[in-house]
Design a protein that fits this description.
Blueprint lengths: L4 H10 L2 H22 L1 E13 L4 E4 L5 E8 L1 H6 L7 E4 L6 E6 L12 E6 L2 E21 L6 E9 L2 E7 H4 L4 E8 L7 E6 L1 E2 L5 E2 L7 E9 L2 E13 L7 E5 L2 E8 L1 H5 L8 E4 L8 E5 L1 E2 L6 E6 L2 E7 L1
Parallel strand pairs: 1-4, 7-10, 15-18
Antiparallel strand pairs: 1-3, 2-7, 3-6, 5-7, 7-9, 8-14, 9-13, 10-12, 11-14, 15-17, 16-22, 17-21, 18-20, 19-22
């Protein structure tokens, strides 16, 4: 009758005991040798992340532009990483637009070779995928400083005045104008022209055909002009000497606005102003509409008279 199984296993374990122990020791030694050969590590820092898209699409608001990758392998495996620049490639072709989140794996590291990737930090990349478009926007100058106190910018002309901006549609929707690089206005008192002025573009937008460095800006500068209004000035009638009767005006008061340099306007006194109508052509007992005239102070001009005409009636 055969011995029980547990007895046979016990005898087998004791048979050639030294040989079995040597085998186990050799196996452990081999494992440690192999592990030491393939367990070298290399940390690749600031590995660039590239996102590939279909033509006509753009990538916005990328949360991660570089990552750190820990590689493990033999010295030969790690040396091979130096032959080709390590990079991360995320292929989002054929995807629909909107916010995306991609978990990074070894498949996104084409230069890894036979080295194993232990971890990628950070492990995910987030971004927005948007279609590209174009939009016509106006050009606006960005001035620095101020003209002399007595002068002001009266007009700015651009050539071209409108440019076509390209970029993601979400970015274009936020833009109504593109500004030039700063143009120095400090201390200027005369008109001037600037050629080949560059434009400051927002991220992810661009201009075609070199337009960004080919803007001409014409700046008109003139003496600073202010206005001052005098209300309820009385209107007088100048009648020829010997004219019988007196003139009656309707209305008898007008509002006068003068225009000129601010310091000249500030010095005008109300009692120095004279509003009048010419009564030389007025017929007795006949009403007529006549214009109001003003003796404007030196250096100033009349901007408006309200009303500009009054009804005049000469009575005996």
């Amino acid at each position: 009758m055969a011995d029980p199984l547990h007895l046979r296993l016990g005898r087998a374990a004791l048979h050639n005991k030294r040989l079995k122990l040597a085998s186990v020791a050799l196996a452990l030694l081999s494992w440690f040798v192999i592990h030491s050969i393939i367990s070298h590590e290399r940390l690749a820092r600031d590995v660039p992340v590239t996102i590939r898209t279909d033509e006509g699409w753009a990538v916005l608001d990328v949360g991660v532009t570089t990552v750190n990758i820990l590689f493990r392998g033999s010295q030969e495996d790690l040396r091979a990483l130096e032959a080709v620049p390590v990079r991360v490639e995320v292929d989002v072709r054929k995807r629909s637009g909107g916010r995306q989140q991609v978990r990074l794996t070894a498949e996104h590291v084409p230069a890894a070779g036979t080295a194993r990737i232990i971890y990628i930090d950070p492990p995910t990349v987030e971004f927005v995928l948007d279609q590209q478009g174009e939009k016509k926007v106006v050009v606006q100058a960005d001035f620095q400083g101020n003209a002399v106190e007595e002068a002001e910018v009266t007009q700015v002309r651009y050539e071209p005045a409108i440019v076509t901006l390209h970029g993601p549609r979400r970015r274009l929707a936020e833009i109504d104008a593109v500004h030039t690089v700063p143009i120095d206005l400090e201390g200027r008192s005369r008109p001037f022209r600037k050629t080949h002025v560059a434009l400051v573009l927002k991220p992810d937008t661009w201009l075609a055909n070199g337009t960004a460095s080919n803007i001409t800006v014409d700046v008109s500068i003139a003496e600073r002009v202010a206005t001052r209004t005098f209300q309820d000035l009385p209107v007088n009638t100048l009648l020829p000497s010997g004219t019988p009767g007196a003139a009656r005006l309707q209305p008898e008061l007008i509002n006068l606005t003068l225009r000129g340099r601010a310091e000249l306007l500030a010095g005008v006194k109300r009692e120095e102003l004279r509003a009048w109508v010419d009564g030389a052509a007025l017929a007795t007992n006949t009403a007529a509409t006549v214009p109001v005239r003003i003796f404007a102070p030196a250096g100033l001009e009349v901007a408006s008279i309200e009303p500009a005409n009054v009804q005049a009636h000469v009575k005996h």
